[in-house]
Amino acid sequence: MCHMSIEQEILDRIKPDNSYRTLVDETVFQVMEAVRREIEGSGLEIEVLLVGSVAKDTYIPAPDIDIFMMFPETTPRKELERRGLELGRKVLGGEERYAEHPYIRGLVNGLGVDLVPCYAIADTSRMRSAVDRTPFHTEFVKSHLSEGQKDQVRLLKRFMKGIGVYGAEARVEGFSGYLTELLVLRYGDFRSVLEAATQWSYATTLYLEQRGETDFDSPLVFYDPVDLDRNVASALSTDCFALFIQASREYLEREREEFFFPRTREPLSMPEIRRMMEERGTSPVIVRMARPGLTDDNLFPQVKKTLEGILSLLRGGDFEVLDSTWYVDDDTAFALELKAHRLPVAMMHAGPPVWIEHSERFLEKWRTGGLSRPFIRNGRWMVMARREHPDAKELLSSDLDQSSLGSGFRKMEGLSVQEGIEVFTESNRRALSALLDKRKNWEV
Amino acid sequence: MCHMSIEQEILDRIKPDNSYRTLVDETVFQVMEAVRREIEGSGLEIEVLLVGSVAKDTYIPAPDIDIFMMFPETTPRKELERRGLELGRKVLGGEERYAEHPYIRGLVNGLGVDLVPCYAIADTSRMRSAVDRTPFHTEFVKSHLSEGQKDQVRLLKRFMKGIGVYGAEARVEGFSGYLTELLVLRYGDFRSVLEAATQWSYATTLYLEQRGETDFDSPLVFYDPVDLDRNVASALSTDCFALFIQASREYLEREREEFFFPRTREPLSMPEIRRMMEERGTSPVIVRMARPGLTDDNLFPQVKKTLEGILSLLRGGDFEVLDSTWYVDDDTAFALELKAHRLPVAMMHAGPPVWIEHSERFLEKWRTGGLSRPFIRNGRWMVMARREHPDAKELLSSDLDQSSLGSGFRKMEGLSVQEGIEVFTESNRRALSALLDKRKNWEV
């Protein structure tokens, strides 16, 4: 069977071989031993636990090694954080990161290792932070996933990575590792997950043995078998959900390696970008700001919020934005496609109905200074008023600071705004390409 | 008192003097006698009745003389119409007109005379056509309006004429003569009507002795004292209603002759029109069609319907129309002010959500030929599509016949469309001036 062979071929590439396994296992052993040694000397009662895809044996290279340091429930939160970071720093050197609470990330034998403090709890009802759930997830998958299904999870992860929907982090808003495992548990194997996905629609609701009772407004709901009040797919965006459905359809119709390993793709060339924009007759706008010094998980939500702020400023200024995206590199670029970046000076301004008493105030205000006298239309006062910012660049340059931006962008460091033909420079190439290139990862 | 003197002055100008009264009375006598002579010879039992403002002595020059020929209720409708027109034609020569049913209009001694066939009914519950009510209106006003109030009605009519809200006909959609009489009966005199109007708001409801029970969605409701199921102000547009309120406010603040007799006003000059448009940066469009051979009462509703058809075509084509008007002269001109008359070729075209089964059809259709590949946005398929008509003139020239136009305009005889600077010709001057000149009649 043709599809078996391609999936086998992919599996041969992604399944860790013996030497890789040995490297991972030894690294895990080494770090856990080091943590235990530190604990021994400190008099703390901390359990050290390997969790995540390495513990579950569902990882594909290169995995994050997640090691949890489980503190007694009686430990005050502040102390847990302080002690946890201290231990992590001693073992890994590494840098401090934040998820819901801080942890230490380091590199050991070329592998990423996260040392995360959490509470040792008896069940999830006693949970005090999101990470407390992870050991239960690990335990659940280890005890439910069959040996053969582990490879099916690997295939699904690689497929999702290939099409660009793998990872619950803010940059992707896709499927988490745990969600891929639950999907394989729910449907049996890789292909069955894809076949099921072609039948999904918005708000498809899944569970294993038991359905939860909470309602979620999400494209996909998967009740967490270890905590029925939680939707495992809560971070999944509608677009990643839809993209997975579409990729499943197309893969099942014609399986190709590119779904797992897309070809590297050059950004569109500047002449191509220019030709496309000119054919469309629309107006490009590029807004650039310095990249704030933040980790990805903190940066991307702020980038998105800032883009929303830019869009709402433009829309409030009567500009129609057809499409928009962002591109983060050395700095942050927001690429926008407007129906027009220049509007007529005149705009219709509606006042109160004539029969309202304070309508006289509108008349007073607009007796002079408008581009027409006040006049009546459908019983209301109207006037042709002068637009404050008929140009998009002018509006953005002057009023962006009044928009709701991500906190890292509020100072608008390094702000520059370009519009029309002035955007066609090499430094804007990747941002413009991100805007215009609508090829999916698996497409040529 | 200053205001008394101006109102007295106006009254001196508009109140018919003795020689004018004699002319009117003699004309009435002459026509009624002629009708009676015709009836005598015919063996018909028809009563001849003077109705309207001449009968009520509330007219201002030059009045329409309304003479009703009241047929027995037993007369079949067809016969009433045939006989009525025949009689009218014999007496007046004149031309046939339609209100709800046909009548004859002619000119006698330089005065307009309407000869209208109707049914002689005992009360309004037996009414068979709208004109059957008129004799009751005439009778009601004659028996209720005091001698002094007749002049107050004359002032109110002249005021409304001056500001442009007098007449229930389609061209104006203003206050009928009967409504002005009821307003004077309701409030006492001319100034009291204006003072009351400054306190009106949308859906103000008035009546004399008794309120009707029917609800009307009208800016003004005045229950007809001779038929409580009818709103006398049903033809009044919101704009005429609002304009009367505003004129009342301003007149009471500073009475001036111009409210009754506005100065004749030249249309804006072409350089002035051009200067205004250029200052605004908006795009003018002129659509012209031949004027259908119809009476005003039939023409104007069709003109309005046609303007609506033009607007809906433009809006459907993504053009934003800021303002519009029409001007009927030798032909019919529609003057429009657009945000822009040229749009970019590209437009965002939304398809179905990805998870809908038939979304594949959208993909098939747009796989090629669009200005982008199909892509996913908020779970929906989208594509940058090519706009069929990026130019307003092109859209109007090509698709106006598919719009809902007034019947007299459906053949689009003599259609011409101009946009941008090509509209600035002397033949468009009056139409453009009607669009741009927002001065109220009483303003300088």
Keywords:
homodimer; 444 residues; alpha+beta; Poly(a)-polymerase, middle domain; Alpha-Beta Plaits; 4 domains; globular
Low-confidence stretches of chain A: none
β-strand percent of chain A reads 15-25%
Strand order, largest beta sheet of chain A: 1-2-5-4-3
Order of helices and strands of chain A: HHEHEHEEEHHHHEEEHHEHEEEHEEHEH
Domain module count of chain A = 4
Oligomer: homodimer
- By CATH reckoning, the class of the largest domain in chain A would read Alpha Beta
Class from helix and strand fractions of chain A = alpha+beta
CATH topology of the largest domain in chain A: Beta Polymerase, domain 2
Mean pLDDT of chain A: 94
SSE layout and pairing:
The structure is a homodimer of 444-residue chains.
Chain A: H1 2-14, H2 18-42, E1 47-51, H3 52-56, E2 64-71, H4 77-92, E3 95-98, E4 102-108, E5 111-119, H5 134-144, H6 147-163, H7 177-187, H8 190-197, E6 204-206, E7 220-224, E8 227-231, H9 238-253, H10 270-280, E9 283-290, H11 296-316, E10 321-328, E11 331-338, E12 346-353, H12 359-366, E13 375-377, E14 380-386, H13 392-399, E15 416-419, H14 429-436
Helix pairs in contact in A: 1-6, 2-4, 5-7, 6-7, 7-8, 8-9
What does this protein structure show overall?
- The structure is a homodimer of 444-residue chains.
- The first copy, chain A, is an alpha+beta fold and 444 residues long.
- Chain A has 4 domains: 1-133, Beta Polymerase, domain 2; 145-262, Poly(a)-polymerase, middle domain; 270-342 and 390-436, 2-Layer Sandwich (Alpha-Beta Plaits); 346-386, no CATH class.
- Chain A contains 14 helices and 15 strands.
- In chain A, the strands form 4 sheets. Chain A has a 5-stranded mixed beta sheet, with helices on both faces.
- In chain A, helix 1 (2-14) packs across helix 6 and helix 5 runs parallel beside helix 7 (177-187).
- Chain A is globular.
- The model of chain A has no long low-confidence stretch (mean pLDDT 94).
- At the A-B interface, helix 9, helix 10, strand 12 and strand 13 of A face helix 9, helix 10, strand 12 and strand 13 of B.
